Amino acid sequence: MTASSVQSVLETVRPKMRSLVVENNLLEVTTTILAKELSPEEAIGSPGRRDFPLIEGKERVIEATLLGAKGQAYTDSPREFTGSLSQVTDLSLDQTPNRAIFLAALNALGRKIGLVSGTVHCKDKEPEECAPRIADYLYNLRQNQKIGLIGLNPAIAEALIDRFGPKQVTITDLQEKNINKTKWGAEIWDGRTETERLIRESDTLVITGTTMSNGTFDTILQMLHQYDKNYTTYGITGAAVCSLLEIPRICPFGRNE
After folding, report:
1. In sequence order, what are the residues at sequence separation of 6 or more whose Cβ sits closer than 8 angstroms to the Cβ of residue 7?
2. Residue 171 — φ and ψ, nearest 5°?
3. Is residue 49's pLDDT more than 60?
4. Which residues pair with 34 in a beta bridge?
5. 126-250 sits in which CATH class?
6. CA distance 161 to 25
7. Are the CB atoms for 35 and 62 separated by under 8 Å?
8. I need a labelling partner for 235 at 20 to 30 A (CA). Which of 63, 92, 121, 126 fits?
9. Which phi and psi (to 5°) does residue 33 adopt?
10. What is the DSSP letter of 114?
11. Distance, CA of 234 to CA of 232 (rounded, Å)
12. What is the pLDDT at residue 12?
């Protein structure tokens, strides 16, 4: 997908999802998708550190189930939904709750048909073990580079800073309590106004998949192409989207359920 694409990422994926539903004879399946909000314990278990947005209540994970296969997505606007895949593909995607439902359902579909793996959140020690895996992966690609982290995941931020050094890592976030703060020696900028600067000044961008549900990913992707930057998304939310559109993604401990 290129920066010149007029359609949003999710609108580009929508017809692909419809085709997959038809090709796999799931259009008339009476089993419905139940998208439900998970508690922090259900979603992430009991990690040692307590500063994950899920635990602090800033975000939630919703879960969709399709014929036993599960797909999840992060959102700050959870809403329950029960319906068919056909109904999901017709949802208006200009609303945050609908985008999250669409993504979770697409992940469940992708998991069911073997399109994608790692559609369920890791738990307990795994979220903390995941972070150094991501940092090591980027370090092994290129040691001397500036990393831009879009979306403050505390464990990933700390691991990146430990690996590359605080002067080589900059972060944007949308949470007011984090903006203009310094954590582990790195600055946190306002994601509403400083994302383009972050992209312009970084060599590689690490982007939370939550940007696909909160509606900011399209603009970010355009800027990534504009400035010709290396990037990867991380996490469960964009699993199927990344597979369908060949968008880089890393999720070391994503589960298959």
Report:
1. none
2. -130, 140
3. no
4. 82
5. alpha beta
6. 47
7. yes
8. 92
9. -95, 130
10. T
11. 7
12. 97
Q: Tally Cβ neighbours within 10 Å of residue 55.
A: 17
Pairing of the two strands 147-150 and 69-75: unpaired
Read off the pLDDT of residues 168-221 as tens digits, 9 standing for 90 and up. 999 999 888 889 999 999 999 999 999 999 999 999 999 999 999 999 999 999
Token readout for 224 is 């990534």
C-alpha gyration radius of the chain: 18
Residue whose entry in the numeric block shows the structure tokens 């992209």: 199
Structure tokens belonging to residue 67: 């014929």
Q: Answer whether 199's CB lies under 8 Å from 229's CB.
A: yes
54 contact partners, CB below 8 Å, separation of at least 6? 40, 43, 44, 60, 61, 74
In the sheet where 81-83 sits, what is the strand order? 69-75, 60-66, 33-38, 81-83
In one-letter notation, the amino acid at residue 173 is D
Structure tokens at 219: 């603009």
Contact assessment for residue 221 and residue 1, using Cβ atoms and an 8 Å cutoff: yes
Task: For residue 57, count CB atoms less than 10 angstroms from its CB and return exposed for 0-12, middle for 13-18, buried for 19 or more.
Answer: exposed
Q: Give the start-to-end residue ranges of the domains of the chain.
A: 9-112, 126-250
pLDDT, position 78: 87
pLDDT mean across residues, the chain: 88
Render pLDDT for 51-101 as a digit per residue (tens, 0 to 9).
Answer: 555 445 567 889 999 999 999 999 988 888 888 899 999 999 999 999 999
